[in-house]
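Help wanted!
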Amino acid sequence: MREHMIKTLVASAAFGLALTGMAYAEPVDDKLVIEGEEGTLELVTSTKAPDHLQEVMDTIYSGWHYREDDTRAMQKDDFDNPAMVFVDRGRDLWNKAIGKNSESCAGCHNGPESMKGLRAVTPRVDAKTGKLMTIENYVDACVTERMGLEAWGWTGDKMKDTLALISMQSRGEVVNVAIDGPAAPFWEKGKEIYYTRFGQLEMSCASCHEENQGLFIRSDHLSQGQINGFPTYRLKDAGILSAQQRFVGCVRDTRAETFKPNSDEFKALELYVASRGNGLSVEGVSVRH
Amino acid sequence: MADDAKPRVKVPKSAAAGEIVTIKSLISHKMESGQRKDAKGELIPRSIINRFTCDFNGVNAIDIAIDPAVSTNPYFEFDVKVDAAGEFKFTWYDDDGSVYEESKTIEIA
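Answered by r_m:
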């Protein structure tokens, strides 16, 4: 009798734990209206899922909806958004005659406004070379071929400052990466990686960001893993983080050897993950924890 | 002078006489605490902004002593009661002797 009671107690305790272990929270119902220097701008942070995702989800949400009140508020005011420091640094770099023959970004491209729209459609396949190009790839080509410089580190300060500046020019534009035509093979490859389980923990991107989004992994609210907000200011790192750096962190957390930023694998994955956010606004530079 | 130091302030363009306005200030600075060691195990010398002040029409509104525990890119938000139109003057003092200044005017609406 006593033994039976203990068993029951253990069973109910385990059941209780299971329940608390499965805490779920809806994405926070909030609107992202940003107060900037040129007035206010409302961003699309949730919308109908793109056609290719219809079977798995109805609505896509920016990761902004999964963060705490304070973190969300920081992104609502450009002055409070710490990423703007990096955008400013990117602007200084843009105008600086850094090339071997004193070339600058501004010398060819004029103001950074000329980059408007790019962030919304990259990664994309370059029509001439047939290669999949991220913004970093374009910057790298300019730095090494036109400016005659040593390549910038892929995730170094100069690259990410420039990335932040270029991304900001497309803030408010709707993500619309091409997934058909020449992009199709890259997209398929990215999709395969998204659903492949990696590492000792045997987890795929989908394990967290599709099947369990909204649940908590320890104290962290699992988002859909959208990258429309990238590059992002990560409070934990007090610095800018690019999408592929985030991928490195995710894959590492599965206890796998990760792909490298700018590898074919991560570029394909960036295209695929970007396409899952087709319809959301580019957030320029977001704030996450 | 730290090359990355760049002051920024946000002040409302106008206020009612006697209104309390919120002012936000930020300066990009590495704020090296002097406690850290480099790869060779040698101490990285301290280099921080050690003082920040704000004056309104020549009258001091806030004067802050900053110590090494303050993190990179120090941000201060504070309230000031505005009785008349005028100019806010902001000053940051660097350990290396550099002084960074910024000013903003406010009107009475």
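OP: Thanks! One thing I noticed: The CA atoms of residues 54 and 60 of chain B lie 6 Å apart.
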